[in-house]
Design goal:
This protein is an alpha/beta fold. It is 26% helix and 16% strand. Pfam families: FeS_assembly_P, Zn_ribbon_PaaD.
């Protein structure tokens, strides 16, 4: 499977004109972005950064900017880890909220806008699409690991209503409320250590 990081490097090497990075079939990994993307962008007044960039380089650089944006409700996750970035193109970023009416949607759009503007990509628009609907299947493996380390049980990949306690690792757990700290989570309790925890609901 081709990783997004590999796509970015390929785009820089080959100057792929017009290629967009789409994320549903890409496996995100925890390696850092290519060094050229990590440098501060050139100052730009009122325009877009890298007007001399080919489309391939531009898309890869925009993708690196977007990957730096954290989810406002679970700050240990990037919005890419959460799977809500559907595509990055030379002139737009496509987002899908975790559910219709999610109160964090506007915050995420603002944060992406601020990050793009700060990097000099003021001409890149942000499109929010609701179909296909977001699914927990889009959370990356790294995102699931970060949820667990943060104290939130990740959704079961097979869709079962089961949870492993993120505190002690016990499977002796039970649901005590269908709603947790946010509507996309349920409140569970471990029968062994008696600690409550959130479970990310399977969508």
């Amino acid at each position: 499977m081709v990783t997004v990081a590999e796509k970015a490097r390929s785009a820089e090497r080959e100057d792929l004109a017009g290629e967009a990075l789409e994320f549903p079939d890409a496996e995100w990994v925890s390696e850092p972005p290519p060094p050229s993307f990590g440098r501060s962008p050139s100052p730009c007044r009122g325009g877009s950064n890298g007007s001399d960039q080919t489309d391939g380089r531009r898309v890869a650089a925009i993708a690196a900017v977007v990957e730096s944006v954290a989810d406002p409700e679970i700050p240990v996750l990037s919005i890419v880890d959460l799977g809500i970035v559907r595509a990055v193109e030379a002139d737009r970023v496509v987002l899908t909220p975790t559910y219709t009416g999610c109160p964090a949607t506007h915050v995420i759009e603002r944060d992406v806008r601020d990050a793009l503007d700060a990097a000099g990509y003021r001409d890149v628009r942000i499109d929010t699409v609701l179909s296909p609907a977001w699914t927990t299947d889009w959370i990356t493996p790294e995102g699931r690991a970060r949820l667990h380390a943060y104290g939130i049980a990740p959704p079961d990949p097979e869709g079962r209503r089961v949870a492993v306690c993120p505190q002690c690792g016990s499977r002796q757990t039970e649901e005590i409320s269908r709603f947790g700290s946010t509507p996309c989570k349920a409140l569970w309790r471990c029968r062994d250590c008696a600690e409550p925890f959130d479970l990310f609901k399977c969508h």
